[in-house]
Design brief:
Layout (H helix, E strand, L loop, with lengths): L1 E6 L6 H5 L1 H8 L4 E6 L12 E3 L7 E3 L1 H12 L7 E11 L2 H8 L3 E6 L7 H7 L2 E4 L9 H12 L8 H9 L15 E2 L2 E2 L9 H19 L1 H4 L6 H12 L2
Parallel strand pairs: 1-2, 1-6, 5-6, 5-7
Antiparallel strand pairs: 3-4, 8-9
This protein binds 6-chloroguanine.
Amino acid sequence: MRIDVLTLFPEAFSGPLQASILGRALAGGIAEVQLHNIRDWATDKHSIVDDYAYGGGPGMVMKPEPLAAAIEDVRGRVEPRGRTVLLTPQGRVLNQGVIDELAAEQRLVLVCGHYEGVDERVREHLVDDEISIGDYVLSGGEIAALVLIDAVVRRQPGTLGSEESLLEESHSDGLLEYPQYTRPAEFRGWRVPDILLSGNHGEIARWRREQRIVRTAKRRPDLLDAVALSDEERRIAREATDNK
Ligand code: 6GU
């Protein structure tokens, strides 16, 4: 997969793109990220990329000319054209379903919005999709783009080791994760649950499943509607919320 990023702040990407699983995937060629500075498409002496809003009001707007030229130029460099996505708080809210949809594209062109937004004509005519990462305000789309890139690249075959992939698969059923522990068995007098030290793999699997259901019921009851639970598991979920 190839991801082109159009941004006023390419330097915001270098650290995060090199770290951890994402860095390893990019270094290994599973995906390629190309950064482009929108300012490089400004044509005036001062490389101006923003201007006052028509109609007045506070805040600057990203000018259409440099942004449109950047999108068209970058999009035309390689086939396929892929999907052009604007990162904006006005977009549809990102979730794993949206990530899997984007991860299936061969190519993404991510446009990081800034200031009070981009000129509406660019959004209307040159953008295919608009994504927000949640209902809060960031100062620009860069961190949102990084969130999207990380989540999309980890869905590419070969990014995760076989163990990580198996874990991901078993946990992509909509339930929150079970609690994790490592050595020592006692830390400051706080004990690891005995069941995990028992060596009884059937019992451990049952306990973990129950923990996931109870956690999800207590913390994110909104997620439970989309999860397939047995009658017994529904009872466990109901009980968890009754005595919270
Ligand atoms: Cl994509 N951009 C900005 N500026 N703020 C956001 C966002 C995006 N998603 C949530 N908040």
